[in-house]
Amino acid sequence: MAPHTAAHARHTAAPARHTAAPAPAPDRRRAWLITALIVTFMVINFADKSVLGLAAVPIMDELNLSNSTYGLISSSFYFLFSLSGLLVGFLSTSLSSRVLLFGMTLLWAVAQLPVLAVASVPTLLAGRILLGAAEGPAASMSMHALYKWFPPERRALPSALQIGGAALGTLIAAPLVTWLIEAYGWRSAYAVLAAVSAIWALVWWQAGHDGPYDHARTGTRTRTGAGTGKGDGPRLPYRRLLSTGTVLGSIASAFGAAWALSLSHAWLPAYLRTELDMSAESAATTISVISGYGLLLLLAISPVVDALKARGVSSRWSSGAAQSIAVCVAACAMAAFPFIESTGARLILIGLAFGTIAIAIPLHYMTTAEVVPTSQRGAVFGIVAGIGTLPGLVAPSLTGHLIDAGETPAHGYTAAFLTAAAVMLVAGLLALTSIRPERDAHRLGLDHRPAGGAH
User: Which in 42, 272, 317, 378 has the greatest CB count within 10 A?
Assistant: First the structure.
């Protein structure tokens, strides 16, 4: 009886592991529905984030703000951004992505309200601080939620689409928000974005669910966990995870990209209008074109990364080098465009400086995920995002001070862009020399996929 019982247990256990995997057709549809919702989530996220920069000129004129004060308000968005990213990253180990993303978007809606009641520096600060706290975990937690619906070898395209939502957010927000500001005043943009955030939260609460590639689903983890850690395996000390060259290099890549991104949101619209003498509509169109360029890069790079990995190219070169080189190219363009006289050439370089960094954002999550157990991925994503986005706390405010301190505003902008270029170049080179997922996964004792595995 004992042998028969043991054999029967083995027989029934195998199908249990098999049935834990998602049914192909229904789960594929659900996975892409979740992807569409998360892309929309990122569109709203970046529209919320961009509204202050797009309304910078009328707000500064109405409230008589100096460049330094406006820079402080822009940086205030990041006062709690990194801290909340860290805290929510750890909460993600015990709370579902459904609850976390729902709570975030409700706070986005609330954050737009203070300035509608009273337009002043204190209410602008309060709204931006609350919005930053609510958006700090957005990119990392939505990526974490997305990864629960796709196995590691199929994450490049969904990851690109998720980050593409950020580019799409700016692409859509720039003309739409500018139109609202010009037609109905800058407060109208805040009101519309508050309503849109609340509507998305209600839709997500009904449709958003955690996927089968979650660490809680140990049967699926057995099938797909190699290379990213086993959900039912031992947890590793965070000190070990965070000290790997891959995680440190991914943070460096994120840091360099975030410096340019924070300047893009806070100062690029004002720079185009005041230094290049563009109208509000022309500046919005330029920003949309830059965002469109970034989106095209994201959509083009994901199949290339997947193809390279399918051919056995290491992650160090397929995804590590790609993000590092993107940050370095953007840095060189950032250093060059202030000195170019030709308007056309300058705009091309501005596009390279602020659009090319889009590549780095999904790829630094991919390289991080390869050296982190799945059960700890949300927390580590939060840490990477929290540290990687620290430039937002410094860059906008520093730029405002440099503009006010410069001999002319143009000299101040040039100093700010050269500072950004230096930071980005160093960050890109550090990422290029540090990111080695296969080596670090082996040193951590994680089972890495054999040759031919995609991730």
Answer: 378
